[in-house]
Amino acid sequence: MKLLRDLLVGAVCAAATCGAVTAQDASAPAASSRQNVPARAGRGAFAPAVRSPEISADRHVTFRLSAPQASSVTVSGSEFLKGEVPLTKDANGLWSVTIGPVAPEIYDYNFTIDGVKTIDPGNYDVKFGSTASTIQSLLNVPGDAPRFFDVQSVPHGEIRTDWYESKSLGTIRRVTIYTPPGYDASGKSKYPVLYLFHGANADETAWTRLGHVSEIMDNMLAAGKVKPMVVVMPFGYPSPPSVPGSAAGLGFNTVVEGFTKDLLGDVIPYVDSHYAVYKDRDHRAIAGLSMGGIESLTIGLNHLDEFSYVAGFSAAISPATFDKDFASIKADPKAANAKLHLLWIGCGEQDGLFAASKSFDKYLSGAGVKHEFYSMPGVHSWIVWRHFLAEYAPQLFR
């Protein structure tokens, strides 16, 4: 309780602790005006007392935590840190460490305080999903120029949250939908549709919050790289969003079966009836990452009467079930090739699923099914999946 009280006091008591922050090790780099949390600083009693993370002009990053009663604090993160890095405590109970330089990207990280993993209380930017295990703090290290997923001075589309009745699942569910700049709801103009799925332990907002789908699509539209399209992002579990369980717990077959019924029986009819979209397979694409990747591949390749563009990003597929999951395209590859405008497979080269993706690449080649295989350095992360969307989307509806 004492440690918890210290953390809470450190998060709201600006005056006393700010002095401790300025008294940090003089060897730490000076802060630039571009920091991860500057917008929340200096706003009265509710401003965080400890600035963390702080990004310097040369992209060194300083993490801080006020925890006088703690005996050990470490920071761990995806791709920019190797293992847990210890923080050092000063005389005022302020822990800190400076690492870097860090390459421009968006990363996730956590503190571990006396063996308990937690988010950074000084950082308002948090990654969350449909389960508590996914909660992490986010570190956004800017580049010298806007990145392909940054907000830029271009026309912007709209992100909508719709509720629909899922008769197949007997419940009311949410779906997130991106409409492009200048979207005409009158029906005079019609748009193709990309159905885009999240991964395990995430939800229907993941592609907007973490994948930056709207920024990516806006920027590529402004550059003339993609066709205007509607992007539909449903919740990928058949169970309620508040208690999705896990794909392993429910079983992939149960997840995919329930989600398939909802997608084909409820989501697509809802979109067709509420948005100015084409209703034929030539103007429908499907893609997903990880758990959403196996959903998009199994649904898309077994329902080529509904989709003509199919993609899997770091798909959670298993070579042991290829013959079962993709029996229809192996049985008649000529018919599959005639219907597929594009079958696209991508995976990070350091991803634990890379071997399975390469096996699927060989499986499709052996079966005579036309496809594209794309790889890049990277692990199982949004850094890779944002790039995959930027590679896949320009090839749609051409």
Q: What are the main properties of this structure?
A:
single chain; 398 residues; alpha/beta; Immunoglobulin-like; Rossmann fold; 2 domains; 8-stranded mixed sheet; 6-stranded antiparallel sheet; 18 strands
Task: Write structural notes for this entry.
This protein has 398 residues and is an alpha/beta fold. It has 2 domains: 2-141, Immunoglobulin-like (Sandwich), CATH 2.60.40.10; 158-395, Alpha/Beta hydrolase fold, catalytic domain (Rossmann fold). It is built from 12 helices and 18 strands. The chain has helices spanning 2-12, 14-22, 206-209, 213-222, 247-250, 252-274, 291-302, 322-325, 327-331, 333-339, 354-367, 382-392; strands at 54-55, 61-66, 73-77, 85-86, 88-89, 94-99, 105-113, 116-118, 126-127, 136-141, 158-166, 171-179, 193-197, 230-234, 284-289, 309-313, 342-348, 372-376. Residues 1-44 have low confidence and may be disordered. The strands form 3 sheets. Strands 11-12-14-13-15-16-17-18 form an 8-stranded mixed β-sheet, with helices on both faces. A hairpin with a 5-residue loop joins strand 1 and strand 2.
SSE blueprint and pairings:
Blueprint: H1 2-12, H2 14-22, E1 54-55, E2 61-66, E3 73-77, E4 85-86, E5 88-89, E6 94-99, E7 105-113, E8 116-118, E9 126-127, E10 136-141, E11 158-166, E12 171-179, E13 193-197, H3 206-209, H4 213-222, E14 230-234, H5 247-250, H6 252-274, E15 284-289, H7 291-302, E16 309-313, H8 322-325, H9 327-331, H10 333-339, E17 342-348, H11 354-367, E18 372-376, H12 382-392
Parallel strand pairs: 13-14, 13-15, 15-16, 16-17, 17-18
Antiparallel strand pairs: 1-2, 2-6, 3-4, 3-7, 5-6, 7-8, 7-10, 9-10, 11-12, 12-14
Helix pairs in contact: 6-7
